[in-house]
Amino acid sequence: MTDNVRTFTDEHTRQRDRSTERSADSEETLRCPECEGHLTTDTEHGETVCADCGLVVEEDEIDHGPEWRAFDSNEKDQKSRVGAPTTNMMHDKGLSTNIGWQDRDAYGKSLSSRQRQKMQRLRTWNERFRTRDSKERNLKQALGEIDRMASALGLPDNVRETASVIYRRALDEDLLPGRSIEGVSTASLYAAARQAGTPRSLDEVTSVSRVDKDEIARTYRYIARELSLEIKPADPEQYVPRFASDLELSDEAERRARELLSTAKAQGVHSGKSPVGLAAAGVYAASLLTNQKVTQSQVSEVANISEVTIRNRYHELLEADQGTQSVA
C-alpha cells in the first residue's frame, strides 16, 4: 500500500516538473534571446521580430491563412471555400449536409437513370437522419413557418434569428404542450419584430399565419410572461417609415408625421390607442400638410386599418398640434 502511494507521488511530481519545464520553454520562446524583450509577429513578411532591439528571431514562417486576397466582402464570399456560418434559423444550425437536386456530377454531366434513383434514395434517407426525434421534427416545422411568415412580412434576417431563438427557448422550457406549433412560431415572430424595432400589427401577422388572431395574442402573452421577454410598448413612430415608403411619400412628409406623433405623445394623446391607427393618421395628416395627394382609403389599405379610425385619430393629432402652436 505504501509502495503504491510512493509510486503515485513520484509520478505526480515528474508530471509537475515536465509541465513546469514546458511553461518555462514557452516563456523563453516569447522573449528575445538577446535582450529578453517582447517578440512580435510580422505576418506580412513572415518574421518574428523583437520589438525592443529589432532582432529577427524567425523568418520564412508558414502562413496558415488563405492563398488568395480579397478587397471587398463580395470578393471574399466568392473566393471562400468554407461553409456558411451556423445559424439558429435551421433546426440543426446548418451543420448537416444537403444533397443537391440537380442530378448532375462534379463536371456538370447528367447522371444515368440508375444513379438518379440511387441519389433520390440517398436524399430520402438524408432527410430522415437530419431529424432524429419528434423534438427536432417539431423545430424544423416551426422554423420553416417562421421563415415563410417573415418573408411574407418583409422582415430582415436579424428578426428571423431572434424569433428562432425565442421558439427554441419555448421548446426547451416545455411551453408547447397544449399549444399549436403554428401559434407559438407566429407569437415568437411577432415578439421578435417588436424587440427589433420593426413591429408588425396583429392583423398583418394574422394575414400570413395559419392561426387566428385571438390565439396569436393569447400565445404571445403567455410566452412573453413565461420567458420574461423585455418588450416595450409599440411606438407609433416605428410604423411611419414603412407606411411612408409603401405610399411613396417624400422625406418631408415622413418627418412631419414623426413631429405630429411626437407632439401627440408629449400631450398623452397616444394613451390607450392603437399605435398602428395613430401612425396611419399621422402619415395621412402629414401628406395633407405637405400637399401630397393621398386618400384615406390608400392609407387604410397600407396600414390594414379602417378609415373611421384614421379620421378619428387624424382630428386628435391636428388638435394636439394646434394646441401646441397656440401655447407657443
UniProtKB/TrEMBL annotation:
GO terms for biological process: DNA-templated transcription initiation. The keyword Cell division does not apply. Sequence repeats lie at residues 144-227, 238-319. Residues 1-29, 66-97 are annotated as: Disordered. It comes from the Archaea. GO terms for molecular function: DNA-binding transcription factor activity; zinc ion binding. HAMAP family: TF2B_arch. This is Transcription initiation factor IIB. The gene is tfb.
